[in-house]
């Protein structure tokens, strides 16, 4: 069984349908129509927070089933399909609990199930498929199977008659309860494959409730919602099952993810890592996401376990990246060696003889204005930079000697309007780097350029040698040469 817990518009399920149908036809001697029906009924499962996306995904999957070619090569055509295992897990019960329980019609077992659903889905709009029937509702749930509850709700829904407002509200509540019962069944099962592109949401952007939930239930993964979903996927996976995720590739080396990285390197087998970089999605422009593809197996890794990987971050555009994924040779790295790397940073290259960049250099975080359209301009838009404006280093579009130097910031010596809207001290972030030459590295695409001491944005990191003369002669040009040679490299050999 396969689950996409962040279904979106159903792209993954539609793609998998076209793989599983011919497999079942060949293995079980089924017709195309029977194979499609069985794949829909038995293999494909999806959950989504947004009810509109659920509708789109259900239609996309049904359309793919109707268009699937039969023995004569023509589409099977429109027909009744098995009930799809797709549900919205992001809608909370409406109305009072007492009114909700009236749907049970006095039947005790159905009433118990309705009460459990009401309690479980109170935080559904924030948790979605992170809801865990075994954790969120303490002490267990309804004593009957969830598919039995769905059947009872079918009967209850069929018994709602009339066209009045009360009847309409009752029918709407019964439909919602029915969907919640299906969601709970899907959340309670175990799967052989979990595949998804989860939401990316850093801890600073999470609600207080979500922060608290992630801290309590997924402590080592709390810093990004994508990492939390990875942990959730592991929990609902059968032993020996497979996980395929699209995640920010910064997770492979960031210090805040070190504990989770160490645990997963020790506990499950890593099979494949494909580093895509930014610009991997045709619907997202610029450097919004910098991602990698991951395949994990839920089994204890042996000391001999090898991780295959490919890096296409240097390719521009989705077509070039797709082609490179096929053409580029796979690199192979030992999983056990990753744990021996400093901070368990993941690398497909051998780093045992390398020097960690942090041993030789400082790195600094820059200013986050909270309102760029208010506090930043192009340098040509202001006649004089002496009226509170200062030169402002941004991320370069590519690795060049001088780039990202088009903007200015209304800084006002750090005590003006910018300070009023920023967090305390935010307008002075990176002050230790000001006035000292170094290298500017974009935090998304890792493009690099020379830094000459100006105020700089949070989208870049400034790298400066700790000992300029002894550690890195001609440090700026040397570091730029290293970074331009391999923008994604976290390791460099000792300076000549």
Explain what this protein looks like in three dimensions.
The structure is a single chain. This protein is an alpha/beta fold. Helix content is 36%, strand content 19%. It has 18 helices and 19 strands. It has helices at 11-28, 32-43, 51-67, 97-101, 108-120, 124-127, 146-158, 165-188, 208-217, 225-235, 258-267, 318-327, 335-340, 357-360, 372-375, 417-421, 468-471, 475-485, and strands spanning 2-4, 44-48, 85-88, 191-196, 237-248, 269-278, 290-297, 306-311, 331-334, 355-356, 361-365, 376-378, 389-393, 407-410, 438-442, 448-451, 455-456, 460-465, 491-492. The strands form four sheets. It has a nine-stranded mixed sheet, sandwiched between helices. A four-stranded antiparallel sheet has the order 11-18-15-16. Strands 12-14-13-17 form a four-stranded mixed sheet. A hairpin with a 5-residue loop joins strand 15 and strand 16 (448-451). Helix 1 (11-28) packs parallel to helix 3.
Beta fraction:
15-25%
Shape: globular
What order do the strands of the largest sheet run in, or round the barrel if closed?
3-2-1-4-5-7-6-8-9
Structural class: alpha/beta
The average pLDDT score comes to: 81
Secondary structure: number of strands: 19
Amino- and carboxy-terminal Cα gap: 55 Å
Taking Cα atoms only, what radius of gyration do you get, to the nearest Å?
27 Å
Largest sheet: 9 strands, mixed
The amount of helix comes to 25-40%
DSSP summary: helix tally: 18
Enumerate the spans where pLDDT stays under 50 for 5 or more consecutive residues: 136-144, 469-475, 482-496
Condensed summary:
With 496 residues, the chain is α/β, with parallel strands linked by helices. It is 36% helix and 19% strand.
